[in-house]
Amino acid sequence: MKKLIYNRDQIHKGPRARFKIVNEKGVEFIEEVSLEDHNSEVTDNNLISYKGINKMPYSPADNIYDSPKVALANLDWNNSDEIILFVNTWGLLGLRNVTVYEKKTHEQRKGIPYISLFKAFGRRREPLELFKDAVKDFQTLLNYKNLWETNKDTTIKYKGSVTSIHSVIKQMLGDVIDDAKPKLTYNGNSFEISLFNNSLLGFVYLDTALDLDRGIGLKICSRENCKKYFEPNRLDNKYCSDLCTYAVRQKNKRIRDKAIKELIQEYPTILKGEIERFVKDSALKKHLSLKEIKELFYNNYKERK
Ligand SMILES: [Zn+2]
């Protein structure tokens, strides 16, 4: 797989928050805390590259640390605390370097007082609304990708006309990854081509485009009340984290125990061990509900009631 590189200006090391939301003349920004406000170390180790994860996170919330792609996929853009946590983990989206969003700021300029949108007294910043738009667009793109996976012939209404889902995906991704450039590097004894992007959003889109190219990508956790996106480290991963895997296992065990208890009472002539075996075999892999397990049992033991 091609290596992805994103040139992150500076990576913050240390526990203190580096970004906060500020308001200037009625416009909200995600802005760097001024240098006097914090004294933790700032390094200029400025490249992140991504190779995939090798261990599932402990809890659904830990997915934010796996990759900027999965963090953006799950980000609640209505929640300022989540936005600040995202930015303090991965940095600003780098929207001034993404042509489509840079253009959008010119349109949004109308009616906005003249203030610098991406820098204030040497501190980097991004308009909050533009940041939210970019998050919404990326999440919409993922929804379209899911739609396309369920039905490749889907059409949707896009920019006023009915369009096939695959051309919408192509256009949305293309708009952002057009800014990516191949970069040739020499690592001591061989050459290597990496895909370089000078914005975090571009990096995330490139990563998503490569997923499409390889036919893999983010999955949605199968646990009923989780449904978060996660980065699978194996093709058969179904849950986003150890906690979800454990919770589903516990829930299934409770259902099986209940089914066994009830069936023993309903079928006094059948041996307890036989009921236990039947329930465990039928329910183990399929995550059946109590009703489904019992129906399966009734069908199998019709004549013995
Ligand atoms: Zn989950």
Give a quick precis of the structure.
With 305 residues, this protein is α+β, with helices and mostly antiparallel strands.
How much of the polypeptide forms β-strand, as a percent range?
15-25%
Helical/strand content category: alpha+beta
Bound molecules: zinc ion
CATH class annotation of the largest domain: Mainly Alpha
- What's the arrangement of strands in the largest beta sheet? 6-1-12-11
Cα end-to-end separation? 60 Å
Radius of gyration: 25 Å
Number of helix segments?
A: 9
Q: What is the CATH third-level topology name of the largest domain?
A: Jann2411-like fold
- Share of residues in helices: 40-55%
The average pLDDT is 84
Stretches where pLDDT is under 50 for at least 5 consecutive residues are: 9-15, 37-47
Main β-sheet, in a few words? 4 strands, mixed
Question: Which outline best applies?
Answer: elongated
> Under the CATH scheme, which architecture of the largest domain would be assigned?
Orthogonal Bundle
Spell out the helices and strands N to C.
Answer: EEEEEEHHHEEHEEHEEHEEHHH
How many discrete structural domains? 2
